[in-house]
Amino acid sequence: MNCIEVHWYGLAYACAIVIAFYMALRMIQKDPKRFPIERKEFESYFLWAELGIVLGARIGYILIYEPNSGYYLTHFWQIFNPFDSHGNFVGIRGMSYHGGLVGFLIASYLYSRKDLKKLLIYLDLIAISLPLGYVFGRIGNFLNQELVGRVVPKDSHLGQIIGIMVDNQLRYPSQLIEAFLEGVIVFLMVVWAKKHTKTHGLLIVVYGLGYSLMRFIAEFYREPDSQMGVYFLNLSMGQILSLFMVIVSLGILLYATKNSKKIKENQ
Q1: Phi, psi angle pair for 244, to nearest 5°
Q2: How many C-beta neighbours within 10 Å does residue 170 have?
Q3: N or C: which end of the chain has fewer CB within 10 A?
Q4: pLDDT tens column, 73-83
Q5: Core vs surface per residue 237-253: b (16+ CB within 10 A) or e
């Protein structure tokens, strides 16, 4: 009888979902004025958001990073097939964070379209509950030895201290660097924003801008995808997409500001 192999990334992703879910529930309970959402209502939304993230992350990877994207576009059912050609369970490999972000925003809008006043509240809830869960995702990458760091230059004193051996090469532990910068630091940014702002939508803006900055920095220590390489100014695809994320975040800021003015005018 064949056993299904459990992958570290899958376990880490499951932990991330659980942490994000319960952190959001805690925020609803702890600060009902800022997050006036019922638990059952949030549970329904969370399912939509998670579905949007998974669909967006996988499709985004196929469209942006997958070298054989043409095959998947003509064999769409293979995009989410967790088995290889021999019937062995290998999981769904290849997820794009930025694709997941697009899927998340689309799912959030579709769920909230009948009551757009709650859209920004939902986004803020995810903004404060997601970062620490994200840490587990990157730890999963580290344990799987995927998304490895760049080779440490011989003149890098920091690299010589924190570097790890991967395939007989000293590399930066980029996954752990990302876990710290994009997870812990971004979480602290959002917590700070929560204490100093009251406008709905600003938490997701701080998250978007903070993540973009931290990801841009972390990419200097992460090996670019072999099939992608680097582009103009030696920027990686992750850095380019992070710049687009800044634009999206500023767009949400504009929407949140206008929405806040409308609420004050109607009071």
Answers
A1: -65, -35
A2: 17
A3: N
A4: 787 777 777 77
A5: bbbbbbeebeebbeebb
Interatomic CA distance for residues 38 and 162, integer angstroms: 45
The answer to whether residue 2 is domain-embedded is no
- Which alpha helices (H) appear in 117-236, and where do they start and end? 119-143, 157-162, 174-178, 186-196, 202-218
Query: Which residue, 68, 64, 46, is CA-closest to 56?
Result: 64
What is the CB-side half-sphere exposure of residue 162 using CA atoms within 13 A? 12
93 is in an annotated binding site: no
Task: Look up residue 61 and give its amino acid.
Answer: Y
Question: 3 pLDDT exceeds 70?
Answer: no
Copy the structure tokens of residue 82. Answer: 């967790």
Q: What is the pLDDT of residue 90?
A: 64
Name the packing angle between helices 39-64 and 97-112 (round to 10°). 140
Q: Convert the pLDDT of each residue in 60-97 to its tens digit.
A: 989 888 777 777 778 777 777 777 677 777 667 778 99
pLDDT of amino acid 232: 79
Cα dihedral: 113, 117, 118, 120 (round 10) = 100
H-helix or E-strand spanning residue 250? helix 237-266
Span 214-232, pLDDT tens digits = 999 999 999 987 777 778 7
Q: Say how many domains are in the chain.
A: 1
